[in-house]
Amino acid sequence: MKAYLPTILSFLIFSFSGYGQGTWLTFDCPGAIQTYLYDMPLSGPFEKFVGQVLYPPGERYPLIYDNAGCHPIGRNPAAFFAINGTNDKIIYTTESYQLVSGSKATEINYPSSFHTSVSGINDALQVIGTYRRFYSGAASHGFLYESGTYTTIDYPDAYTTELHGINNKQAIVGGYAINDPIFSCFIYESGQFTSLSYPGAQQTFCHRINDSGTILGSYSYTPGNYFLYNGKFTPLPRFPGSIDTVYTSINNDGQVGGFYTTLPDSKLHGFIYTP
User: Is residue 213 within 8 Å of 171, Cβ to Cβ?
Assistant: First the structure.
């Protein structure tokens, strides 16, 4: 594997509170048009996240942020989609998804599939994702990858299944559709599926789960509505003044991260919100 030498930049960080009874931290790489936060390790407090950064005139790079600042990695176009507490990462390129552990890169591609996507990783190097056997419009299936072995995980009687998040207790969250395209959310633990629906919503999506079982999700009867669930639903606020707020990750301290869009420039900014 080629070793990439990161360019280290300072990170612009702003903190404020009072909206939604929580505290917001925002992140922007200097000179960037867009800064995406896709995932942070479950083990907190906040130390690192991964994502993607866009510079003019449109060059995208995988992004790592840590205590030393902002590190765009020299491969374009690509993005880091997931990271665990032992610094293993999932990187997406135009060719494939790869598990990067130390200096070793392993391609994640479900055998004989038409398309494979990866969405999560835990500290035990268990990787989850979704694959399709045939063309892009075909039914999808969830999978778990561990030590070179792929295991299909499908919601019973579902037309399509997607896996989105996994914690260090091997609990998995995802979505399923029995009557396409209406999606519902599920939690998969110890071989058992439990369905979850936001009250009154047509569709419910589960994106991430932390080690205490708190789920980050969203629902669809109006766009951009996100929630936390741990026995009860707690709505999450939009970033103040934004036209769109997307939550992508959660850690074991209950902090949630993502990115938001502002006008008039339509720039994207990373954030971490502490409820």
Answer: yes
